[in-house]
Amino acid sequence: MNMHHRFETARASTGPEPTIRKMLSDLVLACQQIEADIATEEARAGIHDRSNPRYPILARSLIERYGNLKETIATLEKRVTERPQHKLVTDAA
User: Fold this and answer.
1) pLDDT confidence of residue 5
2) Taking the CB of residue 63, how many other CB atoms lie within 10 A of it?
3) CA distances (Å), 51 to each of 57, 58, 60, 64, 66, in order?
4) CA 20, CA 38: separation in Å to the nearest integer?
5) CA dist 24 → 8, 12, 76, 78, 80 (Å)
6) What pLDDT score does 19 carry?
7) How far is CA 69 from the centre of its chain?
8) Within 13 Å, how many C-alpha atoms sit on residue 77's CB side?
9) Hey, where are the domains in the chain?
10) pTM of the full predicted structure?
11) Which of 8-12, 27-31, 42-46, 80-84 is the least confident region?
12) SS3 state at 20
């Protein structure tokens, strides 16, 4: 008896949504950690003004990463909330 086929069918029926939701959760946690790291670096340097030329390079790179993660989160949230534009057509035969 080949159980592998059954597991694939069950997994396919649930869709990618649980995986995407887990990714979203992980990305939100990563953003929170980056926010804390930025605040720590600003406090260490004593510079909070991002336009200051002496603003820490580490904080600048963390801000860029933070922005990229926020864009990724927005894209994944859109994917989860969008309804499928088409439905599978099955043969009636």
Assistant:
1) 52
2) 16
3) 12, 14, 10, 14, 18
4) 26
5) 24, 20, 7, 11, 10
6) 85
7) 6
8) 11
9) 15-81
10) 0.69
11) 8-12
12) helix
